Amino acid sequence: MKLALWQATPGNGNIEAVFSAICTQLRAAAAAGARLLLVPELILPGYNRPDLHQSLAQPLDGDWVTRLRAEAARQGCGLCFGWAERDGDRVYNAATTIGPDGAVLAHYRKIQLFGPMERSSFLPGDTLCPVFSLEGRRLAMLICYDVEFPQHAGALARAGVGLILVPTANPAGFEHVQRILVPARASEGNCTVAYANLVGPEGDLTFGGLSVIAGPDGQPLASAGARGEALLIVDLAAADLVPVALRSEQAVDYRPARGPA
Amino acid sequence: MKLALWQATPGNGNIEAVFSAICTQLRAAAAAGARLLLVPELILPGYNRPDLHQSLAQPLDGDWVTRLRAEAARQGCGLCFGWAERDGDRVYNAATTIGPDGAVLAHYRKIQLFGPMERSSFLPGDTLCPVFSLEGRRLAMLICYDVEFPQHAGALARAGVGLILVPTANPAGFEHVQRILVPARASEGNCTVAYANLVGPEGDLTFGGLSVIAGPDGQPLASAGARGEALLIVDLAAADLVPVALRSEQAVDYRPARGPA
After folding, report:
1. How confident is the model over B81-94, as a mean pLDDT?
2. pTM of structure
3. Alpha carbons A8 and B90: distance in angstroms, whole number
4. How many domains in chain A?
5. Residue B218 is nearest to which of A124, A176, A255, comparing CB atoms?
6. Structural domain of residue A34, as residue ranges?
7. Known catalytic residue: A77?
8. Is residue B122 part of a domain?
9. Alpha carbon of residue A38 to chain centroid
10. Cross-chain residue pair B130–A159, CB shorter than 8 Å
C-alpha cells in the first residue's frame, strides 16, 4: 500500500482554496498509486483561526465531509484530514479517514487538547480512535499532541495497529516531536507513524514542517523539510521489510512493576 | 551538580583490571568536580560473560560493593555501576548507587531482562528503583532494556525523578535506543537520562557505545562516539536551564482514554 502525506501551508481561512488544494493533492496522490492521503490538523477551517472554529465547524454529515467523500471516491484515493466538528452545541478538534470508495472509515476526536486556544475552541474527546482496516492493514488516528503521550500510541500499538495517522499543527521550535517522539512511538510500538504537519506562518504562529513517516525501526521512510509544502509518497512495503531484530518486542516482554518507593 | 559517565570497554573477565579502571575514572571524575560517576551494566564481572555470572556474583555486603564504597569515599565521588548480585541462591542483574561518602544510596534489580542469555543467568526484579536524593536532586536507576519501556521511565518521572541513571550494554546495530528512545524518555519525562554503554567487542558481541546524557528537551548534554572509551562530565545546571516551553507537561495534561474499539 502506498501512503501519501501532504505538508501544507495554512489556508488563511479561505475554505474554497483549501478544498481546491486538497483536491489537487488527492489527484497527485492517486496518480502515484497512493490509496490514502494524510493532511494536517484543522486543515478546515484553519488551525490558528480560533475566530472560525465555532462559527464554521461542520457536522460529520455536513458539507465538508460530504464533498471530500465525493472527491476521494472520484479520485480513488482515501483521505485522512483534521477539521473542526460540530455535534449539537459541542465543537471538537476532529480527524476523519475516508476510504478510496468515499466511505467514512473512522472518526476521532482529539483527546489531548494543547494550550489555551485549543481548550477555548474545543471540547476534548475521551475515546481512542477505533481500529480500522485499509488494504489489509490495521490503522488508527491520533491528533498532534496526542502522539506525544506513550500511553495513547501504546494502547493503539497493543491493539495491533500497524499504521498511526497523525494530522498535526506543530510550531517551529518544537522539532523534538518530529525528531524524537514520533520515531520513538514508531519504534516502541513496532508500527509506522505518519505525522503530517503544517508549514509556514498563520497569524502569530509559524508551523515547523518536518513532517515524517517513521517506520517500525524509528527511521524515516520519508521526511519533509522545515520550509515549504511537500508531498511525500511511500510504499509501506518498505516498512514491512524492517528486520525482526530491529522490531520492538515490548508488547510481549513488558513486566508490570511495583513502586517506585 | 556535575555528573560523570564512563563509556567502558569490556573487562574480559579480569576483575582486578576492572577495579583498577573504575578507580582511575573515579579519580578523574572527582578531579573534575563530579559528585557521581555512572558506569555500564554488569561491569562486574562482565556483560557477555555468562560463564561468570553465577560463579562470581557477590552479595550486596560482599567484596565488590565494600571495596567500591571505600574507593568512592576515598575519592569523594559517588558511583553507580551494574553488577551481578547474589542473594542466597538467586542471582540478579543489579545496579547500585554509592554516594560520595561511601554510603549505599540505592540498589535495584533489572526488571526487563533481555534475551535468552540474560534470562538464563538472572532472575528479574519486580520493583522499580526507590527514589533517592543527591545534591538536592531526585534520582533513580533503570538498567538497559528497562529504559526502552515508557511505562517504567514514566513511573519514575511521575514520582518526581529528575535524573535517571542507566547502566547499559547495548550492542552495535541497535543505535535507535541511544538516538531515539533515550532522548524520548528524557523529553516526555521532563528529566535527564544518562545512558552509559559499553563499547567494543566481548566474545560474540560488539557493544555500540554512543553513550548519552539527554536533557529534558531531549537534546544531549554530552554524547560519546561509537568507537573507544570516553569519559563525559557535564554540569546538570545546563539541564536546569532548559526553557519551560520545551519541557513536557504530560504528567499534568495526561487524560486517560477509553478504547480503542
Report:
1. 98
2. 0.96
3. 58
4. 1
5. A176
6. 2-240
7. no
8. yes
9. 6
10. no
